[in-house]
Amino acid sequence: MTLTWVRRHESTVTALRRLLARIRELGLKIKRLLLDRAFFNVPVTEYLQGENLPFLMPVMFRGRRPKKKKVNTGLHWIKRQKAGRYSHTLKNHKRTVTVWVYVSYRTHRNRKDRKRVQQKLLFAAWRVQGSPTEIRERYRKRFGIESSYRQLRQARIYTCTRDPHLRLVFVAIALILRNLWVWIHATHLAEGRGPTMTVHLERLRFKQLLDWIAQAVVAVLHDGSMPCVLDDGT
Hints:
234 residues
């Protein structure tokens, strides 16, 4: 079990090392890394600190929860603290690394009863400064990337072809449509410009734009005939 755990996280470091090498080949400068909680482990943290790369990631709790009436230690102790910054040392056999853990809060509506609830968030950081609220908002920028990929999947043409060139074209079309949606909001539907610009996504949802485009394509190209499925008797 331990050997499997070590190999899995060492392979994560290998993938991270390969991606960072590619970024440097392109001449891009890294201001800070916003990582998924799966990267919260000793090998990854040790590697990033050795590379002198600032990073920010959610904390992942591993192992069993402490028993009731037992004194909490480590991350479980930090989780019970109020908003602030706390030092924490990650351990993996004889290897240890120290990071700052920020405790922050966010409020949201419960999906079932729609009541406002408060959630405590823990972020591990190294060479990233700010208040707990600033750390939380800084990490939220990562979700803009994930939203782009989710919208890409919404616009991508589904196919069973194995032709890599055709599949790449379909991905390119999806990206163009997504960028078109962003451009429409920035130039026609938003209020203000520059840092003071306010975007109103409710004025045109991405799914609505895709539906309009699909209707236009059907109106131009569809001949009105019913689809036909051939039965070969098998």
